[in-house]
């Protein structure tokens, strides 16, 4: 389709298709979604976001408005919305059966454009809901999903422990079945050592479960929390899927989490490019505008080539995931999505650092023309570790690629 320009006309401030370039990925419903979300965020989020940052939370009423206006179901689902969820509102009136990975990207991209720090408030939902949707029994889903999808309850995915982060197989928290078989007493290792002993439990706020917020430098809305489970009595019906498959469920959940981080990195990088370009077009030093200095244009060139390449790679992975089953997508693209997330972290770190320098002192002030760049550069390290750290994902990407290559070679013999 022919795309009319939308958003800023400054170079690299928007994805290429926003500026009128043709793209095979987007249709009328993506355009409709883009317009709806942009206006909705302007009307309902933009003026509150600073206050929410100070409070350290999106208040319940606002969170529930996200649900009423159709954001929570897509956030919980990623690139496809099951038809059973058609009864819930879906943003911009998009039909569940029409929703795809590019709707997911457009929705988040427009949210991040208006409120770059807000992602943290929804991370628990984005990474916690998919295993429930995919693996929990119909009874458990019927019991808990309505409250989650209407924004009455929030959730998180608690894997990392003080003694095990990258090394997920070695988590220590244990859960034992009671003699009558009706309860697990606290998550998560339900068997022996290693992955086969791991299960996934949904644990409501029962006696023995305590939480304490951990402050993160990246922004006030960070939902990172220290959770302890002490003799929590979890009904056996709250086991997600099958006992012993917790490690598999955890691993198969990462594609979307890592893509989601890439969405955020790309928009944050474009925001930096836009604000820095506005500044360099007007700031004069030594009798010239900054943009008139070749060295400044080189900086933009180096940033632009990385951001547009990241966007193109991200879109091709979204397309591939849209055309594969969940299982096949995890198998074929688990490594590639890990490498994409590494690239997203490297790009946002590079771009935000370069833009801080271009802004001069304004790049370090929390108010004024450099405020968004300052906030993004402060949060850039948060792209490097969560969701799999750089070293771990580089290694994973190569191991997965070799595994696929050996398999293909064997099949040819
Ligand atoms: C903002 C934020 C949000 C988070 N959200 C969640 C969440 O929602 N749920 C959750 O469960 N966890 C969450 N985490 C935790 C996060 O997933 C872990 O911090 C991450 O997986 C790394 O684990 P770790 O901190 O234990 O580091 P470690 O595993 O101890 O690693 C430390 C360093 O050593 C490197 N390293 C480790 N092993 C190797 C190796 N074999 N070879 C080479 N290098 C290696 C790593 O790359 C890393 O650089 C969050 C963390 C942050 C900061």
Short descriptors:
single chain, 413 residues, mainly alpha, Butyryl-Coa Dehydrogenase, subunit A, domain 1, Butyryl-CoA Dehydrogenase, subunit A, domain 2, Butyryl-CoA Dehydrogenase, subunit A, domain 3, 3 domains, 3-stranded antiparallel beta sheet, two-stranded antiparallel ribbon, 9 strands, 6% strand, binds flavin-adenine dinucleotide, flavin adenine dinucleotide binding, acyl-CoA dehydrogenase activity, flavoprotein
Write the layout of secondary structure elements.
Elements lengths: L27 H17 L4 H7 L4 H9 L3 H6 L23 H14 L4 H17 L2 H12 L26 E2 L5 E3 L14 E2 L7 E5 L11 E5 L3 E3 L3 E2 L5 H6 L2 H29 L1 E2 L2 E2 L4 H29 L3 H34 L11 H9 L10 H23 L1
Antiparallel strand pairs: 1-2, 2-6, 3-7, 4-5, 8-9
Helix pairs in contact: 1-5, 5-9, 6-7, 6-9, 9-10, 9-11, 10-11, 11-12, 11-13
The protein binds flavin-adenine dinucleotide (FAD).
